[in-house]
Amino acid sequence: MVVRASPVPLYIQIDEELRGQIESGELGPLAQVPSETDLAEHFGVSRMTARKALDRLVADGMLFRQPGKGTFVAPTKIAHGASQGLSFSAAMKAQGLSCETRVLEAETVSAPSNVSRALSLSAGAQAIFLRRLRVVDGEPAAIHLSYMPSRLSALLDADLSGSLSELMSRVGARVDRSEDSVEAVLATGEEARLLNVPEGSPLVLIRGTAYAANNDPIRYTEALYPGGRWQFNLQVSGGADLRPELKAAG
After folding, report:
1. Listed residue (89, 104, 106) closest to 148, CA to CA
2. Which phi and psi angles does 205 have, rounded to 5°?
3. Rounded-to-integer distance, Cα 34 and Cα 42, Å
4. Which of 65, 76, 96, 234 gives a 20 to 30 Å CA spacing to 36?
5. Rounded to two decimals, what is the model's pTM?
6. Which CATH class is domain 10-73?
7. What is the mean pLDDT of residues 140-161?
8. Where in the chain are the domains?
9. Residue 246 confidence class, pLDDT cut points 50, 70, 90
10. Could you give the CA distance from residue 37 to residue 19 in angstroms, rounded to a whole number?
11. Contact 73/21 with Cβ under 8 angstroms?
């Protein structure tokens, strides 16, 4: 219960009690928390005070709201490096998480113009295209779209449910480094369906071009992650340029 004589504001006291229940596991991931009305009645405060406590927890990423349904505990965030040169499968297994890959598309296509530029292909050149859904601990966690030069067509005969980086190494295309960009986007209807999130939910989009040791571009990837489930870790060396790039709307 709140202590009215305390110098700590009532909404912060409510915030701290709920935060403690979340951190202790009493309120587990995706558990619904009491409504503003219920909290106000339980703590003997106004709805505005209860709302301020919930707003703080939502802002900190510990809770999320679903319109018409209520407020819920955010799922545990998955740690991952932002670079598309990293093996997703290996990173998940290193954290003790189960990782399943569902291959949605695997074919040879005419490379889109942005892919041709990234992979230094001639206009209209063929490329290997993969679209895969990554499932972590039974929950849809990411959509990965990858394009590779057609000379790597042997990949289409391989088992694509594991690490793509490992498969590429086996066919003589080992990833040495990656250049990446990160931006926030909103989930389309198809993306929302695959990731089991509401349409229009925030997603993190990471675009990356992977290079071999001789600097040949060998893979272009677009990876979409539900914003509430991920924590991306960055390692920055001296002199790295992290200035944001402003993109014109439309």
Report:
1. 106
2. -105, 120
3. 9
4. 76
5. 0.65
6. mainly alpha
7. 93
8. 10-73, 78-233
9. very low
10. 18
11. no
